[in-house]
Amino acid sequence: MTTPVQPGPQVDTVQSGPPDFPTDEKRSSTGSIDKVETASESEFDAGFVKKTMFWLDIRILPMLALIYSFALIDRINLGSAYAAGMDVTLGLREGARFSLVTLLYFVPYIILQLPGNLMLRKIGVRNWLSFLILAWGAVQLGMGFVKTWEELLGTRVLLGVFEAPFFPALLWLISAWYKRHEVQKRMAAFYLLTVTAGGLSPLLAYGLSLLNGKGGLEGWRWIFVVEGLITIFLAFICFLFVPGFPEEAKFLDEKQKRFVIGRINEDRGDALPDELTKEKVLKHLRDWTLWAYGFIFMCAAMPNYAQSYFTPLILRGMGYQAKDALLRTVPPYIASIPTTILVAWLADKHKHRSSYILITCVICIIGNGITAWHPNDHVRYFGVFLTNIGNAASIPTILAYSANNVVSHSKRSVQSSLMVAFGSIGGILAATCFRSQDIPRYIPGLIATMVSQALLIMVVAALTARHMYWNKQSREGKLAEPLEGQPGFFYTL
Prior knowledge:
Layout: E1 25-27, E2 33-35, H1 46-89, H2 97-104, H3 106-111, H4 113-123, H5 125-143, H6 149-163, H7 166-177, H8 183-209, H9 219-241, H10 254-268, H11 278-285, H12 288-317, H13 322-328, H14 330-350, H15 354-373, H16 377-404, H17 409-433, H18 443-475
Antiparallel strand pairs: 1-2
């Protein structure tokens, strides 16, 4: 016997939850339909709600952030290894070898995003994610023993294969647990935890490089070996503790599960999965807005990858030694934490995203311009801070903006895959625009990054104008069908 969910109140003029939701059933992996009892959020007392939400945050976000932190570290430690002597051992300064090694990681990473994400429901969250982590951890470990730059290139391609489905799966999971106007704070917390770990990656790399000569291995090799072993260990942690989707959660009791599923359905009506078919995937791929969300994430990812891969090299060009260059990459990441939290809090409070995206992109453009052209190296270093502050705040805002404007699990799986695939193209652009011959200032690459932010602003403006138009049409009763097929749904601006 299921408990019906009563219509939720109309919260604001920008976006409000549907008055009801279509089903309280879930489809099992075998295709059978199982009943899931749900309830309205208003049926629960405030203490229970606060306690349950705190438990969700503690149980979900730190675990996913910890695991993804090492996915990020394993991806971006190439620059630290280069600065620690890998360039000399493997001859990476010759021609475009380093850019090629950096770039080819993204080829399988882009191609396998959507196919990999479609496996999440079929194989199961824990099984699929644990396998991926174990596989790329083994590859990372192997990178510590390569003898030639060609072997390094091969391991980077394999790293791209196994990391490809991971990030879109995490985005899908996080957005599945929270209401639309709660999600940016969670995305920001997840992102900050991971980017902070990424910012500390050069410190870890520096410490590991001091093992130079131990066990007959050069210092840069120890970076890959130790970080690979940590990742392999995290695969077992993932299998034991990573959360699944809400209807699968074993860490919730039945009352908590009813609460979580009911409140998501009140908000957007898609807490439980719809059947994922080839026809649905093709239909979602015909929606141009999903491609637009991917494009703006690509533009946001470009300065992020440029910071990760090339900031140590830019700092070395300012006259800092390898150790100082690695250490000075950390403070800009730390500076971005309070601003990213502030932007996320304001965006969720106002239930609005696009203006915050535009502001943070302008900050990023200013930072890149200062780093590129200011004659004083200390001021150029300040430009690195501004770039990171703007970019770090824009990424979770873009993730929330796109997640807020899709409905259904099947569409969310396609949307998250396209987002991360396009983000990887941003990595390719960073690798190709920041060329070896442009050392030490990398002015062409910084100009390209500024152009990417300008394009981001234009596409967000176009998307927001589109959403405003259809929201107006829906409120005036001029549409034959509700937006996104969900009664009461309005786009987040």
